[in-house]
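Q: How would the structure tokens look for this protein?
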Amino acid sequence: MKELLLDGKWEFKALDIYGMLPARARAASKWMPAEVPGTIHTDLMKLRVIDDPFYRMNENDVQWIDAVKWVYRKRFIVTENLLTEDRVELEAGGLDTYAQIYCNGMKVGMTANMFVEHRFEIKEFLKAGMNELAIIFDSPTRLSKDLQAAHTPLRVANDPHRVFVRKAQYSFGWDWGPRLTTSGIWRSIKLQAYSHGRLSHPFAKTVSVSADEAVVELTVDIERTSDVPLSVHAFIGGGMVAHEYMGTINEGRAMFDVRIPEPRLWWPNEYGAQPMYAAVIELRRGAEEIGVIETSFAVRMVKLLQEKDEEGSSFIIEVNGRKIFCKGADWIPSDSFIPRIPETTYERLLTLAREAHMNMLRVWGGGIYEQDVFYDLCDRLGLMVWQDFMFACGEYPDDAWFHVQVQDEAEKVIRRLRNHPSIVVWCGNNESEWLFCTEHPGASPDDMHGAGIFSSLLPSVCEKLDGTRIYWRSSPFGDGFPNSESNGTHHQWTVWSSWKDYPEYAMDHARFVSEFGFQAPASRSTFDTVTLPKDRFMQSEVMEHHNKQIEGTERLVRFMAAHYRMTDAFDDFIYHGQLVQAEALKFAVEHWRRRKYLTAGTLFWQLNDCWPVSSWSVIDSSLVPKAAYYYAKRFYAPVLISLKPAADTIEVWLTSDWDHPEKGTMVIELLSVNGGVRWKRSKQIVCPPDASFAAARVVKSAVTKYDRSEHYLRVRFETSVGTITENRYFFKEPKHLQLPKPRLSWKLQELKRGQFQLMVSASRLAKNVRIEIEDEHPKLSNNYFDVDGGHTVRVTIDVDRPKGWVKKHLVLRYMQ
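A: Here is the predicted structure in token form.
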């Protein structure tokens, strides 16, 4: 196969057919340089035709872009040698969205789906020498509104026309993201030329697994262009395996019966290793190799356990025969302009997730089917993926033309992603049935427009083309009301969105919580990049613009006032706002982990952000972790101590994800904020494997004679290797604690170039110590931690700066 990559330098201009081009952007009607992959917005920004839409309220000034037609063109040379092949195809990895493709002035084809690859036979339009490819993008907003007007009205959250177009739904605006409706060539584009046949869609399907052998059915599709005899050969490698197989060709497909002795199984993070195998498949004409395709795969089995119990039915994901308590977060696109997301951003975010002991991410249904690098990293890091199909928060058309689009999309998506062992769930949509049944009490989810897509079309395609993992209709979904706590999956939005405070989480007894969350501001350094000094107060118009939830700022104020002392200082807004979010997620996860496996998963909303904003993310758009991220490293740890107030006692729970028992000592202390231990108790215990239980109790009368605003409990589980887990219980809200000056001190030790150890000590309690390094975003092993009086906390800092510079720019803050 011969390829000609068409990425790189293109030209583009506006076609002002609809008369929507503003006077200030008239320069866009002339040919200008463009970069592919890219978007209209990023090309216009590079040319300074528009200002950064993220800055202040510039978003409002670019709403004309999606109402204009745009044309991209590229001139390129085709050799005579390329044209000697039987077939030449244009492969466009991603065209956003309504596109008409022309080659040398002749129409090649058209597209109406952003999410999938498009292929066109193009040889008849090409010539030896100079050629021109032009792609015209029509207005996604105009065309989707035309479709909306021509069809039955649908109930949809946000812009109702968005459900008529197969395009990233968040680009029309969401309650955490701006309205920046893009167009453009957003994935790679190239010519492919070949003769006799082309290999595509390899699939390594694990059929059975034992300790001695795994049976894998390897298939690959073959598109023939001639009747010459062909053969297909596969090479399997990985671990101790290195085998060659001859395939059997039948009706455009080759099949191999692969047997892997003593298979190495793929496991989620902290449950085992993530070994991968590789399959290299060659298409041969005699001894000549005429095509080759590769795929990685893994050996693992996934099952959903739904068994009746005292609360309803379980929802437990089992991998390789072992129950997994799913710990993680929901994932959204990491930028409004996807082509400019570097691979380093994916690596940074996913590594942070793994280091926070997460084992699952849910790819939310209003974004995109992620880039290949995302799934490759999840495979390598052991991050299971709950993969939504791209439908969110609304009814969808029931028309045949739409079903044809969805079928094509699902087939292409499944074929692209099915070899990734990290994907363990296909899910039909986000919240559509729940919202429909909430608005129509007593109605069935099957009464919803588009219900057949999720109840029939998608599961049938999943079974036909995959069959190795779970399909679930929606998040949330279950028997009866789609957001039931007794079975299925659950979204908890009574807390926060319905103005309920986080102690209400204790009332929720859901079986698998696939969405819940609490907002917090981004870091100060992130907001500084998109604001002016005059904007930097909580209720400025610019700051309210950078919170897309209706009454989002008001909620931030309400919950900060419930827990922290209120001031009008901008840094207090950020610091206290992040702590409220952190405490809320901690409270929720500890509650649900205590219920293991009555509750079998917690995925909080959300891991990441697409722009600088106050949102539910725990890592902001500059990749700066918020307080809640560091809390997550503690509340998602494999072994967790948590404290639960009861009528007359405070229960001390121990929860373990380990597969072995652990003997140790539970140490319970009543400490003074001024330093010193009022009393101390120890208890020898054995923590069973994969368990959660009340290991001890503190009678409340044991602390009644002490001032509760000046005392707190500290509990540790210690083994022969030291403290495995610890936690604290404060009797009063932070705003009511009588905290003294902690007499904080610190020392910095250089471990090696670019890595330091910071030792933070206090003679009195220093609560929620925050480490920042001005003008840098260092990697920190810990942050927003408590330092008990007379103790020292050690933190590793990775930053490529000299020691003297780090000392000069190091800033510590604590709660006062």
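The chain has a mean pLDDT of 97.

The first strand starts at residue 2 and ends at 5.

Upvote if useful.
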